Amino acid sequence: MTMTPAQWEAISASLATLKERSPFYARKFGDIDLADITSPAQFSGLPFTDKADLRQAYPLGLAAVPDEKIVRIHSSSGTTGTPVIIPYTQRDIDDWACMFARCYQYAGLTPRDRVQITPGYGLWTAGIGFQAGAERLGAMAVPMGPGNTDKQLQMMIDLKSTVLCATSSYALLLAEEIERRGIGDQICLRKGIIGSERWGEKMRARIASELGVELYDIYGLTEVYGPGIGINCRADSAMHIWADYVYLEVVDPVTGEPVPDGQVGEIVLTTLRKEGAPLVRFRTHDLSRVVPGPCECGSPHPRIDIITGRTDDMVKVKGVNMFPAQIEEVIRFTDGTSSEYQVMIDHLMGHDVLTLFFETAATGEEREQVERSLEAIFKAKIGMTPQAKGVSIGELPRSEKKTRRIFDNRY
């Protein structure tokens, strides 16, 4: 991804004072004289920043401004280690709201929309980001937060909500519940803004069909403001990334070298305006590719494809590396399967065994045929044969947040 002159101007201005503003980067870059970084090519040689680096700065070691300029903090969940706390200045908050409002505009929202927000509030960035963007746009925010499906549906009907903001898991749960209750004719939704977890084509199609909405993928992560740094437009499924706020690189996850546009690699982001906790070459671990060429919508902002997975999502079974995106592709190509699946990996009698549970409306011999078909397609596309087990629609667990799909019981 070629750096624009405006991006380089912002980055070089930030580097000029970064060590003075940030004890974190003063330690990280050590003997590197940032004044010697005089070109984008030299910038691409700077060390990456990783989440492990950020954890070492807990609680407020990432701050690059005095305490009196910090107006809010957000935090990662900390489920896989020490949480990362990100401080925000007022300008950071305002910039984030502007980016989020732009996301809504790209999805076709207007001030006449009523935006039902189901992601969580609090330390997590999601709920408050969706709300701030709606308010900046001038739309009506309905800040429900997660859970309480009865109340969600009642408010959706009574307030005639036109936009649903949710994880894909909760959007599917609501869609199934609307169908089960037979209240589809009372629902006024026209758009779904979905984020926080990757989702396959079958799940996407089910949600769009059952809710009767246009769906949009919103992108972001806590370390880089939160959701709202990019979204797909009405012309394409690829997501525009706001190049006036972040600089995008895609690198080989093993070597760290840049990959050509169009080739899948790991997304690396550098913030261009962030004051509270600027990030330099932050490895997101998200896997995608730059979509080359201009978008039909005319936007100047670069595009990345739908996130295919994360570098830390990979599991290895019988010597075969696989990602959730590959499993979802198998589900998509297998006739008779629904969108929901769950993988159990066990070590039994000296051998690894992968069992793939999937939902299907098929029964009896027809279900057995779907199982054998899925096993064959899995073998052809991924390189090993699982034990495929079909279950009835709705039998696998649903989640109001993110759905865990792969359980590795070997360790």
Automatic annotation (TrEMBL):
Q: What is its EC number?
A: 6.2.1.30
Q: What pathway, per the record?
A: Aromatic compound metabolism; phenylacetate degradation
A Pfam family the protein falls into: AMP-binding_C_2
Protein name stated in the entry = Phenylacetate-coenzyme A ligase
Top-tier EC class: ligase
The record, for SUPFAM superfamilies, names:
Acetyl-CoA synthetase-like
Q: Which InterPro entries match?
A: AMP-bd_C_sf (IPR045851), AMP-dep_Lig_C (IPR028154), AMP-dep_synth/lig_dom (IPR000873), ANL_N_sf (IPR042099), PA_CoA_ligase (IPR011880)
**GO-annotated biological processes:** phenylacetate catabolic process
- TM annotation in the entry: none
Assembly behavior: Monomer.
Keywords in alphabetical order, please.
Answer: Ligase, Nucleotide-binding
Assigned protein family? Belongs to the phenylacetyl-CoA ligase family.
- Any idea which GO molecular function terms this record carries? nucleotide binding; phenylacetate-CoA ligase activity
